[in-house]
Amino acid sequence: MQARSALFDLFGDHLRSRGGRAPVAALVKLLSPLGIAPPAVRTAVSRMVRQGWLHPLRLNSGPGYLLTPKAARRLDEAAARIYRTGKIGWDGRFDLIVLEAAGNRRERQRLAANLAFLGYGTLDEQTWVATRPGEEIDSLLTEAGVRYERFTATHAAGTPGAMAVVRRAWDLDAIGQAYERFVSEQRPLLSGITVRSGDEAAYAARFRLVHAWRTFLFQDPQLPPALLPERWPGTAAAAFFDRHAARLRPAADRYVEQCLEAGTKAAVRQKGQP
User: Cα–Cα–Cα angle for 191, 76, 23, nearest 5°?
Assistant: First the structure.
């Protein structure tokens, strides 16, 4: 697990609801059970500051970091998709974007990842499609310096034609298999966490569960049911995730609070040293 990715998970799943800020010492302590060393945490934090995701600030306890408005918006959108707090509907229309060739290979890869995160699939190298408009899409493309045209489109053949577009834009078989692997890989790891397990063990298991589930934000556009195959594996996987995420939440929350308190005390002690 990379430190930068883990920090996004940490802020999104635990710190966003606690003011979106934390002292450095707490960040280090909270990522330690995931096997992430302090130097990696500090390097990742510095990178996220440069990229505009975090803002340094002085807390009463010492140096810390705060989510920027851009990061808060992105994490709120991710949380809504992770926990499916909104109903997925479809009005029969696609959001269609035609891009001009953009930058070097690295820039194109970064842009493609961001478009996938927002729920867009590719029909060809320049044409992207989604079943719902991405709220951030215009600002994303403008910030990337990419010229584009945007259309609202419907398929002349109705739902059958729309399903063909979906199959072209996304490999649903591969996504379905990924959901099945997710469940088969996570089940034995989670079965070992019981009411007798410590808070740290429950926190680490839940963190890895959410981290693995979050990867589907870049794979699965969360299509409306009308465009999905029958017996979609994502449905069973979502129920599995919800059940275990809720089961482990109380213990994970206790561990987070403990680390935040310990991190604050550690920073105060360091501040008081001559």
Answer: 80
Question: Tokens in use for 264?
Answer: 């604050």
Q: What is the pTM of this model?
A: 0.84
pLDDT at res. 98: 93
The closest alpha carbon to 30, from 268, 207, 193, belongs to: 207
**pLDDT attached to residue 267:** 53
Question: What sign has the CA pseudo-torsion 39, 40, 46, 49?
Answer: negative
Low-confidence ranges of the chain (pLDDT < 70): 85-86, 102, 263-274
Element (H, E) at 186: helix 172-191
Within a 10 A sphere around the Cβ of 161, how many other Cβ atoms?
12
Q: How far apart are CA 256 and CA 17, in angstroms?
A: 12
The angle formed by the CA atoms of residues 234, 240 and 241, to the nearest 5 degrees, is 85
The domains located in the chain, with CATH, are: 93-153 (3.30.70.790), 172-252 (1.20.58)
